[in-house]
Write a structure and sequence with these properties.
Radius of gyration: 27 Å
Largest sheet: none
Number of domains: 2
């Protein structure tokens, strides 16, 4: 028959093992809750951001952009509006600013790249091609560096798929 010291040691070992198992279980649950909270925050940020694409101001901008008909005509119109300090220049800037902000959110982990790829994909590349002559006229991709990096990332992702 074990002595009292061995019995206490055995009981303490069982209690510690149960406690450790409980701690591991709690850590797993906490990790899942953090992951779900992060996904929920990303979904909320993404939803709000993509709703901006269809709000009145962005629709006005997209209509103005579409009125130029080609990337070169857009560049010429933007430069003309900038030189005259027309309101149209600032309305036009909403779109590349939008993509720069989207790229910043993706770079900081607020929106996952795969979500952007599935929702925008080729449209992002099309919009870059539309804006590229204007961006080059303003000083090159360094004017919108995050937008440019997001486009490169998208090109690589689409080429793989």
């Amino acid at each position: 028959m074990p002595n009292w010291a061995e019995q206490v040691t055995a009981i303490a070992t069982v209690v510690l093992a149960v406690g450790a198992a409980g701690a591991v279980g709690a850590a797993i649950v906490a990790g899942q809750q953090l992951r779900e909270a992060r996904i929920g925050r990303q979904a909320e940020v993404a939803s709000e951001f993509f709703q901006r694409w269809s709000d009145d101001a962005m629709v006005q901008t997209r209509r103005l952009v579409a009125s130029y008909g080609s990337p070169d005509a857009l560049r010429d119109g933007l430069l003309r509006h900038l030189a005259a300090n027309d309101m149209e220049a600032y309305v036009l800037f909403r779109e590349p600013d939008y993509f720069e902000q989207l790229a910043a959110l993706e770079e900081r982990g607020a929106i996952e790249f795969e979500l952007i790829r599935s929702l925008l994909g080729h449209r992002l590349l099309d919009r870059w091609q539309l804006w590229e002559p204007s961006i080059n006229a303003l000083g090159g991709p360094g004017v919108y560096p995050l937008f440019a990096r997001l486009v490169l990332k998208m090109e690589r992702a689409i080429a793989v798929h």
